[in-house]
Amino acid sequence: MNALAPTTRIDWFRILEDVAREGYSLYEVAQFTTIPKNTLLGYRNNGIEPRHDVGDVLLKFWAQVKQADPASAPRVPRLPSAWNPSERKYRRR
Fold first, then answer.
1. What pTM was estimated for this model as a whole?
2. pLDDT, tens only, 73-82
3. Contact (Cβ atoms closer than 8 angstroms) between residue 20 and residue 92
4. What does the pLDDT read at residue 47?
5. Position 93 in a domain
6. How far, in Å, CA of 83 to CA of 37, rounded?
């Protein structure tokens, strides 16, 4: 079974910037979502992706603030991986 990797990912920087433009500080986002402020800084400044459950909470908060559907969240292209499982080859010895 070949699983295809998604071609885009959520743009967590834009998610947090959108919320900030609506008047919420990172401290307030941390309080409302129970995600530590330093973790939010990592998502915004270092390009770190959250675990699925944490990302879901943050997306729901963004959707509530923006009055939008979570599926319409901003996305960016996913960088290609150096390892492609569909091209896996084994050497015979």
1. 0.77
2. 999 887 766 6
3. no
4. 84
5. no
6. 33
The whole-angstrom separation of Cα 1 and Cα 64 is 37
Phi, psi of 91 (to 5 degrees): -90, 140
Please report whether residue 3 resides in a domain: no
Looking at the domain assignment, is residue 57 inside a domain?
yes
Query: Which residues face 77 on adjacent strands?
Result: 8
Q: pLDDT of 14-60, one tens digit each? A: 999 999 999 999 999 999 999 999 999 999 999 889 999 999 999 99
Domain hosting residue 60, numbered range: 9-68
* Nearest CA-CA partner of 40 in 23, 21, 20: 20
